[in-house]
Specification:
Elements (H helix, E strand, L loop, with lengths): L24 E6 L2 H12 L2 E4 L7 E6 L2 E8 L9 E7 L3 H10 L3 E9 L3 E7 L5 E6 L15 E8 L2 H12 L2 E3 L8 E6 L2 E8 L11 E7 L3 H10 L3 E9 L2 E7 L5 E6 L3
Parallel strand pairs: 1-4, 5-8, 9-12, 13-16
Antiparallel strand pairs: 1-5, 2-3, 3-4, 6-7, 7-8, 9-13, 10-11, 11-12, 14-15, 15-16
Helix pairs in contact: 2-3
Length: 267
């Protein structure tokens, strides 16, 4: 693990910042795409259409005809776990990818062009959490935020919040604000005064088999019922439904082990 504290360019200059914004897309990489479509279609009511060919076998998840997420296939020769990945917007993906490298992160895919998805790159922060950077060719037609079945929040679980948040501030131009959720070692990334993502440090409590990772929160009408539905469909409830600052939340996995959260937002 590379420590995220004090990241900067070798010459001491701050990396360029490029059109920061809230995570604008989420994607799921799995070994069994057909089973994933069956699970998420039954859980959230998603429908599916073919997606960008440049990214391999990929489908778009739609809700009421509007894009919600993407599902891609993990290479068969790589034993990576299934996982959800948030994508952050940038008006210059190449410069943002260079900033990731100069601040101690890595770029594993791209930058590359996709006719459907725009220019994008996939990398990891200095502690190993995977995320994407994307410049979409046009404003995406996405389902209204807050509609049940849509992503409404992303939170990073890592070793230590402050140093890791500094990496995302340097690379993507975010501001640090007060935590959106109460608790020790939490940072919220802000843009123009509004929260866009959370960072939570858990130290040695981070599971060794998962490492630092992003969790996507999906809106549901009733968290308890949705968690029961996850079980019925072959998934697992990792953390039972509980009330918090973001609403009533449960952490679950799909049948392949990809972790995500269900949230019934406070009215």
């Amino acid at each position: 693990m590379t420590d995220a504290r004090g990241n900067a360019r070798p010459n001491g200059e701050a990396p360029a910042r490029h059109a920061p914004g809230a995570p604008c897309r989420v994607s799921l990489m799995v070994h069994g795409p057909d089973a994933a479509q069956e699970f998420y279609g039954a859980l959230f009511g998603w429908e599916f259409r073919p997606g960008p060919r440049q990214l391999g076998c990929c489908v778009r998840a739609l809700l009421d005809g509007r894009e919600v997420a993407g599902i891609g296939v993990l290479p068969p020769d790589r034993h990576r776990p299934a996982a959800w990945t948030p994508y952050f917007p940038s008006d210059d993906v190449d410069a943002s990818a260079a900033a990731v490298r100069s601040c101690g992160g890595t770029i594993g895919v791209g930058p590359l062009d996709s006719a459907d998805a725009g220019r994008l790159a996939i990398g990891s922060d200095p502690c190993g959490a995977v995320f994407g950077i994307v410049r979409a060719p046009a404003p995406p037609v996405t389902a209204a935020t807050g509609t049940p079945g849509t992503p409404v929040w992303n939170e990073l679980t890592t070793y230590e919040a402050a140093g890791t948040a500094k990496f995302y501030r340097s690379v993507l131009g975010y501001e640090e604000g007060p935590p959106a959720t109460a608790g020790p070692d939490r940072v919220t990334l802000h843009l123009d005064g509004r929260p866009v993502a959370g960072v939570r440090g858990v130290g040695d409590a981070l599971p060794r088999d998962r490492g630092p990772h992003w969790t996507t929160y999906f809106a549901v009408t009733d968290t308890d019922e949705a968690a029961d539905r996850v079980r019925d469909l072959g998934g697992l409830v990792v953390e039972p439904a509980r009330d918090g600052d973001r609403g009533r939340v449960a952490t679950v996995t799909d049948p392949e082990g990809a972790r995500f959260a269900l949230v019934q937002q406070a009215r």
